[in-house]
């Protein structure tokens, strides 16, 4: 049995070798794949993808990345018997250069035995070969939608086709960094109700430089259901003696996470009446917390993502209408009386149709989920932010939290600081 263990440890570190890659790439014909839709001199390099296509094409599909983790991460050991995962990547008209780099970074930086398969869900892109040609690479499968479905139904389709017990979702313009997967799988193995996200590093949309993101951030939102990153409070930072420890987050950014497949199914997957893009991260985040799970950011897992300023693709029903439909469904099903804050922050949502929500309300009942008030009190928090200055109302309380000088002051927002947490009671 000792021999088996040693063997397993050896397998853990193996990914595809350079020599193997040479053969694979010859077979795959990387050059002709990339050449088919190349940027042409004179074209606006931003017009198709809303990032610099030209720069993306100058960067090799297997470029080296700086290891952006805290140095202490490299001393951690992971369970050699982690089970493998299905990686689901949905895309609509992704640039071939970024799509290929996403897949290659996964194949290069993940122990082979941890990848059950990579399912690409082609959400009715113009050229079916963007996806199909990639199936020449190891582990890669391709599902193509007959109609544009949007990322929510596409992810569900990928999840339903998955063969592994663990699901990993990625965007189609990512680059995974060194040892990104074991820390996520380990966390989900320890606690299958935990949904684990990496720290999302920034791939600059103009230069494609790979930039480390802060690992002192967590996800937050405002009442219009607009996602934002928030600094951990000074208190929370001080309490974090170990920089490799997971960070609980009220909300996940949405595109990159690992979840146990049975847990995903039991919790009701996604709200498949949501279209195209947006809002699904609030829905799944509220649902996970309120129905007995948790959301964490794992600082020792790093994945780069190209953040851009606008969507390069068409929303058939219009960008604003779609965002309102998706977030309104979220507010109506999950936010209880607090949906009033959503409607006052987003008055345009009031008259808009959002379809039938009975199924999702039934789901919430049958899972016996907690209230939105419980979620705010325990997992998130309400603060009072001055919109023009972005400063917050703060109670000048001694740090031990007992002695209060009963003064209200204005200070920079530290959203999880106890002195800035306020309740809005309904009566
Ligand atoms: N996507 C999709 N169908 C759509 C819209 C988006 O499959 O109708 C994919 C998109 O290609 C990407 C992921 O969903 O892989 C997230 O979209 P995007 O990157 O535009 O969102 P962002 O990361 O900017 O929030
Ligand atoms: Mn994206």
UniProtKB/TrEMBL annotation:
Identify the residues that the record assigns to the Glycosyltransferase 2-like domain, covering every copy: 86-267
The cofactor(s) it depends on are: Mn(2+)
Q: Where in the cell is it found?
A: Golgi apparatus membrane
Q: Which residues form a coiled coil?
A: none
Q: Which domain of life is it from?
A: Eukaryota
Q: Does the keyword Disulfide bond apply?
A: yes
Q: Which InterPro entries match?
A: GalNAc-T, Glyco_trans_2-like, Nucleotide-diphossugar_trans
**Per the UniProt entry, what are the Gene Ontology biological process annotations, in alphabetical order?**
protein O-linked glycosylation
Task: Cite the GO molecular-function annotations of the record.
Answer: carbohydrate binding; metal ion binding; polypeptide N-acetylgalactosaminyltransferase activity
**Which reaction does this enzyme catalyse, per its entry?**
L-seryl-[protein] + UDP-N-acetyl-alpha-D-galactosamine = a 3-O-[N-acetyl-alpha-D-galactosaminyl]-L-seryl-[protein] + UDP + H(+); L-threonyl-[protein] + UDP-N-acetyl-alpha-D-galactosamine = a 3-O-[N-acetyl-alpha-D-galactosaminyl]-L-threonyl-[protein] + UDP + H(+)
Q: Which Pfam families match?
A: Glycos_transf_2 (PF00535)
Q: Which UniProt keywords apply?
A: Disulfide bond, Glycosyltransferase, Golgi apparatus, Lectin, Manganese, Membrane, Metal-binding, Signal-anchor, Transferase, Transmembrane, Transmembrane helix
Q: In which pathway does it act?
A: Protein modification; protein glycosylation
Q: Which GO terms describe its cellular component?
A: Golgi membrane
Q: What is its EC number?
A: 2.4.1.41
Q: How does it sit in the membrane?
A: Single-pass type II membrane protein
Report the family membership: Belongs to the glycosyltransferase 2 family. GalNAc-T subfamily.
Report the protein name in the record: polypeptide N-acetylgalactosaminyltransferase
Q: Which taxonomic lineage does the organism of this UniProt entry have?
A: Eukaryota, Metazoa, Chordata, Craniata, Vertebrata
